[in-house]
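Batch manifest, entry 17 of 40.
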Amino acid sequence: MHRLALGDFELSIFSDGTYPLDGGAFFGVIPKVMWSRKVEADERNCVTAGLNSLLIRTGKRTVLVETGMGNKLPDRMIKFYGQPAKLLDNLSAAGIAPDDIDIVINTHLHFDHCGWNTIRDKNGKIVPTFPRARYYAPEGEWQYARRPSERDAISYISDNYDPLVASGQMTLLKGGEEIVPGISVETFPGHTAHMMAVIVRGVAVGQKKTREEEIGQSFAITRKRIREIEAKALNKLRDASGAKTPKAPDTIGKGTASAVPPQASRESRALAPEGTTACYISDLIPTTAHIDLTWSMGFDLYPLDTIESKKRYYAQAIPERWLTVFTHDPTIPWAYVEKDEQGRMVARGAEYNSNDSAGCSEAADKTVSHPPRLH
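Output type: structure tokens
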């Protein structure tokens, strides 16, 4: 297990195991001669993908982000992916029972992210794996999952979420909500239209937030959501009238894999205390090998939106030094994404406590560099 303190929160990584993915699908349009420098493929051209869940202890609540692949895959999918089903065992090894989980958050509803949401009881009935938990997922994702396209219908297994929605145990989110003080969600389209990241803001020791500050943070998130809705409505009105919306200069991602905004932007932003913010970025940046703006998966439904979402994420995460949590990296579950002296994107390892009995391959605390992208 990988564990660290984030302010007054404790973060831990628990794995549901690893599974094989076709290397070409995992890296999309990136040539194998480039991605094979980062990861090793077997004789079938498959690479190893991880299934990393994030456990957050706030002091009041125990929150689980993502529930892996689970144990309900149909036989035809087991032939492709296997079914490691290790999450519950790994949680148990750390002394965590299903009843201990208060909240479950799904960033989206693909089978490898919400598989342990439910299990079959001894009579074959689908029941919640975490009976006391309140579940959260994107509403737009659930609506899409009801009528997916032919291209990605295999990615959705309704038993993972429909019974929870029907019972009222799953709350569907618009995006931008604060789940509990310090844990919020934000939509980053690209992999799917409504995929969310989970942002965790711990409070530095000795700087405990007052109730008024917690309420103020919640209002700030609500105001941000309102501004986004107003901006979209204004753009629609401009489009309808034929007026052109001025486009800001695109300074992120030009040349080599640059993702740091101009110095002026960095200085004008109030930085979060270093080491107090983490983000489970989900399939926007699934592994350390995908940190470049243009390195994305072939599974992404909207690859150009993936690039724009990465720009938006890096514009805040890099200057504020957020810890990025990688959902599918089998060896490095979290790191700080930075630019090195040559302008290359790098993932610098975070301090952690490792306990092999709790289920994630041992991560090296090292720097992983990323080559400049092709032009």
